[in-house]
Design brief:
2 copies of one chain form a homodimer. By secondary structure, chain A is α/β, with parallel strands linked by helices. Chain A is built from 14 helices and 9 strands. In chain A, the strands form 2 sheets. A 6-stranded parallel beta sheet of chain A has the order 3-2-1-4-5-6, with helices on both faces.
């Protein structure tokens, strides 16, 4: 079994690391900014100082940090992963970051004789805890086969979608569909509710047909019961749609509804909702209509 | 068993009427414009002349016609249903039409001592043939209970959502969600494909997570395999979104993505796609990007 370095033991990373320890992997982390969670140390997590030391100690280094600049810092900053890497090691970035910069990061890691996978996930904290994450992987077949046993400890639906960057592209595509489907359900419920329909009955009627989706089920219910505790925060979805819109500019693609939906998220943030669940997008439409879906 | 009059034996109406005949109902139709399909006559369908005569003969009159003006003509035109109605009869409009005018139609029918249900369906020709239609009903509890055995011969997911007009409102809400989810999947696939990802693998990866929907499954597949034979025609979805946008104006609701999506359907129609399946919406985005999701 290969030794794994894990950088980023936050809300997502900690339970993922826990599953690897449970599966018997030797796991090493840095106390760079703060000490790792006690419960992981109790499970056998070893602590070293510096990301470069993590890279020296481990065969596979996993990063799970908030955004593109943090991945860049962790990999290529002072005492970063790149400093400690030696030939044959594998870097797996499981953060959700820019597909374009991912390609650059992969090139730089490969130039050191190592391999690189971008492997962002969806499923949130619930999926991380239950080891049911969807994992969208970009990179070589060889690196994917090497990482697969590790992925299988953390997720369920694991797909090699293409070369480096394509994992991140797929995650962006996922976030486009999720945001725009939330927006679709929100338009429908605001419309129906203001027309005098009971939104709960409308949701029920729609669940039987072509409009059925996980979003209508989960987020539609949240809009009706006014349950806007995250879940997945609006400010994170704003980050993801920003990646989509930057990508659209760079690639030459028009994403009209992604663009409008980002404006609605902006409106939510402007009204104090940045840390609410993304289903609270409905509030932007409610403000425009002067009408709430339900009390 | 009550005698049923059936007005509108088209692509949807004919198989629905067939199920009622199979269930043993006495069924009567008018040869007003053209003779009813031969196979329905062979099953026992009785033909009379004039919608008024249909209303005189039947206890329950079902209408299943293309749009609001046709319902108005059939109900209130010369020799229309209203002329032949006597107290205690039930009119069920299963067409997809304006919720606002539906309320007017219901008032006029009820003023004759009859009852009225709006009961639009979703599920298309496939659902009509398989008797698995979703039926969204507006009207009184009493009328709903009376009609329920009839609905159960034609559909599966049958919901009384509210008073008259609310069935049509729910259908509009359904069509908003369907159109905007198709648009969401289209934006995601155009983005991912132009970024170099294999759209089939992206769709597969997304099916496992929060982006999962019947639309991603069915229409996503159609976009990739370029199968744009209807299905449900773009020109019909344009009609439904027009009802949504008129309703938005009348009710005081903002539907930004419904509005943009209608413009994309308009672009499809302008390029000869009015009679293609609504999944061909992707073509509007493809033209904007100068790139096709797949060959």
């Amino acid at each position: 079994m290969e030794t794994i370095g894990f950088i980023g033991l936050g809300i997502m990373g900690a339970p993922m690391a826990g599953h690897l320890l449970d599966a018997g992997y030797e796991l090493v982390a840095s106390d760079h900014r703060r000490a790792p969670p006690r419960w992981l140390v109790d499970k056998g997590l070893r602590t070293v100082t510096g990301h470069d030391t993590v890279a020296r100690t481990a065969d596979i280094v996993i990063t799970m940090v908030p955004d593109t600049p943090q991945v860049r810092e962790v990999l290529f900053g002072e005492a970063g992963v790149a400093v400690g890497l030696t030939k044959g090691k594998l870097v797996i970035d499981m953060s959700s970051i820019s597909p374009i910069e991912t390609r650059e990061f992969a090139e730089r890691i490969k130039a050191l004789g190592c391999d690189y996978l971008d492997a962002p996930v969806s499923g949130g904290e619930v999926g991380a805890k239950a080891a049911t994450l969807t994992i969208m992987v970009g990179g070589s077949e060889t690196a994917f086969e090497r990482a697969k046993p590790v992925f299988e400890k953390m997720g369920k639906n694991i797909t090699l979608v293409g070369e480096n960057g394509v994992g991140q592209t797929t995650k962006v595509a996922n976030q486009i569909v999720v945001a725009l489907t939330i927006e679709a359900v929100a338009e429908a419920l605001v419309f129906a509710s203001k027309a005098g329909a009971d939104p709960a009955k409308v949701r029920q009627a729609l669940m039987g047909g072509l409009a059925a989706s996980r979003i209508l089920e989960v987020h539609g219910e949240r809009m009706i019961s006014r349950s806007f505790d995250p879940g997945f925060r609006i400010e994170l979805h704003q980050k993801d749609l920003a990646l989509a819109l930057e990508g659209a500019k760079a690639l030459g693609v028009s994403l009209p509804n992604t663009s409008t939906t980002q404006q609605l998220f902006n409106s939510c943030a402007a009204n104090g909702g940045a840390k609410q669940d993304h289903s609270a997008l409905v509030r932007a439409l409610e403000r425009m209509a002067g009408h709430q879906v339900s009390e």
